[in-house]
């Protein structure tokens, strides 16, 4: 008797491209994403020109967005990452894989040794995802981010991944 295993889904990251807007806007507008990312800006996903954005694809279909930004001042050089994923795909490891790929790019191609991420303290699923990708909690930033809709503030967890000296490009 032969047992067939389910095919493993394929995750890809590609630069954000024209034509991605509609599906990314649909995902960004889900209550699970709006809760942490707030409502999309009018020019989303082109609203953060200082960030480099990638469309996350799972089995060739748009599944979310991941972005990074860089502090280029040599004395403080590091990068930050953020992402959202279609709620239908939560809990399947795609967020962790996407973060790991961007971390690899930031270390091997962009020469960073330190990467940060700062999820809402109440976003336990995101924190677990980032821990699985190697990030460590380093402190709570009190009232660091506006709540969705602009009413009140919430705390964020500052997390970092540091590549030991001599390991980064």
Describe this structure in words.
With 169 residues, this protein is α+β, with helices and mostly antiparallel strands. Helix content is 23%, strand content 33%. The protein is built from four helices and seven strands; from the N terminus they run E-H-H-E-E-E-H-E-H-E-E. It has helices spanning 21-28, 31-37, 94-108, 124-132; strands spanning 11-15, 52-58, 61-71, 78-85, 114-117, 136-146, 153-162. A seven-stranded mixed β-sheet has the order 1-2-3-4-5-7-6, sandwiched between helices. The longest helix is centred in the middle third of the chain and has 15 residues, at 94-108. It is globular, with a radius of gyration of 17 Å.
Largest sheet: 7 strands, mixed
Number of helices: 4
Could you tell me the number of beta strands?
A: 7
Helix coverage percent: 10-25%
Write the layout of secondary structure elements.
Blueprint: E1 11-15, H1 21-28, H2 31-37, E2 52-58, E3 61-71, E4 78-85, H3 94-108, E5 114-117, H4 124-132, E6 136-146, E7 153-162
Parallel strand pairs: 4-5
Antiparallel strand pairs: 1-2, 2-3, 3-4, 5-7, 6-7
Quick rundown:
With 169 residues, this protein is α+β, with helices and mostly antiparallel strands. 23% of the residues lie in helices and 33% in strands.
Keywords:
alpha+beta; seven-stranded mixed sheet; 169 residues; globular; single chain
